[in-house]
Amino acid sequence: MKKPGKGGNITIYDIAKKAGVSPSTVSRVINNRPGVGAATRKRLQKLLKEYNYFPNEAARSLVNQTSRFIGILIDDIRTIHHTEGAYIIERQLVDLGYCCMIFNTGRDNESKARYIEIMRTRRVDGVVMMGSTFQNDEVAASINQHLSDVPVVMANGYLELPNTYGILADEQNGVASCVELLYKKGKSKLAFVIDVYTPSNRLKQRGFEEACQRLGLQGEVYQCASTLAGAYEVTQQIMRERPATDGIIYVVDLLAASGVRALVDLGYAVPEQVAVVGVDNSIYREISNPKLTSLDNKLLDLSTAAADTLIAALQGRRVPKKVLIYSSIVERETT
């Protein structure tokens, strides 16, 4: 038998021969199963370590009909909110022995659908999709065609398919509560800044518009590019076109932080003249000056629930098709 470090492919048959036991006994030790005496188990564990034995996962997957691979799809890995969520999910799955592969799909719906097909070729046991941008007909059709036999969990979105599950942040009511907060602060002429019209962002806008109507407030919606420069420019536009605006809600914290900078540069006092609220309660809340009030859509809770749902589905347990996570406002200096 080749010694460790010499490039040999050590098998359980080699270990069994060396120890004078059956291959099935070695297998029980490797998989931490009962039926092996304490002394034999200890001796085999020592040999496995000595010969640097690692199970052949490809062979194991053929026997068990499971790959232990999970695909995590993100449309843009530069989106810090989604990558943080993916990190939480990946850590939880790795602790249970799964290997996670993170894929950057791009924002085009056809590209997202192609990555679903790639998941099939990788023989994944399950998929997590980060964000409501995957909530579209192309992705649904691709899942139905290529991944109908594995559980698929969407973080902050949902598709009506037999094998899909959705963990949703209640951002519509959350943004409505942001409008109510500004109203209580004496603000009555509000603006809402949106970049991309994803299903999640549309719900945020709906919460803004319905709350403004219910409270009798003036509310206008503006769209900008998904960049710091885009938010800076649209904030200047808002104050140029509607100088009486006294409250602005941005669809994500990144845009809000840039909006605060624009207001300060224009000479407005924040929050005395114009109050600002973001969404996500992300790291941008701290680098904003003044510090940003933000709607906390519970990234940790949502991501943990997504991982728990996938694990339960993989284990064959019954799980709810939809789970709603309630948002809350974390008030800081911009209100």
Could you please describe the fold and organization of this structure?
This protein is α/β, with parallel strands linked by helices and 335 residues long. The chain is 46% helix and 18% strand. The chain has 13 helices and twelve strands. The strands form two sheets. It has a six-stranded parallel sheet with strand order 2-1-3-4-5-11, with helices on both faces. It has a six-stranded mixed sheet with strand order 7-6-8-9-10-12, sandwiched between helices. Strand 3, helix 7 and strand 4 form a beta-alpha-beta unit. Helix 1 crosses helix 2, helix 5 packs across helix 13 and helix 10 crosses helix 11. The longest helix has 17 residues.
Number of strands: 12
User: Helix share of residues?
Assistant: 40-55%
Q: What structural class do the secondary elements suggest?
A: alpha/beta
Low-confidence stretches: none
The neighbouring-strand order within the major sheet is 2-1-3-4-5-11
Which overall shape is indicated by the principal axes computed on the Cα atoms?
elongated
| Rg over alpha carbons | 26 Å
The helix count comes to: 13
Distance between the termini: 71 Å
As a percent range, the share of strand residues is 15-25%
Give the H and E element order: HHHHEHEHEHEEHEHEHEHEHEHEE
Mean pLDDT: 91
Biggest sheet character: 6 strands, parallel
Task: Please render the helix and strand layout as text.
Layout: H1 12-19, H2 23-30, H3 38-50, H4 57-64, E1 69-74, H5 80-94, E2 99-104, H6 109-121, E3 126-130, H7 137-146, E4 152-155, E5 164-169, H8 171-184, E6 189-194, H9 199-215, E7 218-223, H10 228-241, E8 247-250, H11 253-265, E9 275-279, H12 284-287, E10 293-296, H13 299-314, E11 322-325, E12 328-330
Parallel strand pairs: 1-2, 1-3, 3-4, 4-5, 5-11, 6-7, 6-8, 8-9, 9-10
Antiparallel strand pairs: 10-12
Helix pairs in contact: 1-2, 1-3, 5-13, 6-7, 8-9, 10-11
